[in-house]
Fold:
Amino acid sequence: MSSGLSLADHITLELRADIIGGRLLPGMALVENDLVSAYNASRNTIREALHRLGQEGLARYVRNKGVMVRRLGPDDVRDLFKVRRTLELQAIHTSRPLRDYQSDRMQEALEATELAREREDWRAVGTHSLAFHQHIVGLMHSPLFDEFFTNVVAQLRLVFCMAPDESRFQSPWLARDRQIHELLVEGDKHGAEGALSLYLDDSEHLLLQMLASTSRH
Structure:
């Protein structure tokens, strides 16, 4: 176990990773007894982990049902995109010329997205696309922002899971992520900022549209 992290910390991180990986979906029950067995942990430790997950906006207590993976609504989406615009656009605006290792990390995320798309594993497409955007925030070299944005990514993943047609939702973004990467490689920060700003506008609009259509059915 990593120094400084308790078992509850590790369980929280693993549950969050399961959300980012699309293995835990909105509305799923987080059953205390199952988690006690799965992690060989005490009930108190599991409760602490679930409490933390709630603080991160990823789970909520539902009366008579227990703790559930959270469903997000339109106001949550608008708030998440405010955060994305602030962090991602600032990261590009203040970035220095892209170093090889930074470009390589982005390229790896793009290639993983491409492979998932070829397999038509749309859930993985969303996960790898979000990893690309985590690398954009990583340009700020701030562990605090990286940690905070990982939580934003987990919440976004929960919204993506609610798409009635995830293939249709995920299809447009890979080409646009590639374009942002190419502009950063070329050192065209202004162009990359513009492309990312438009990307975020379109993504937010599509997600809000999607949530509106699912609430009508």
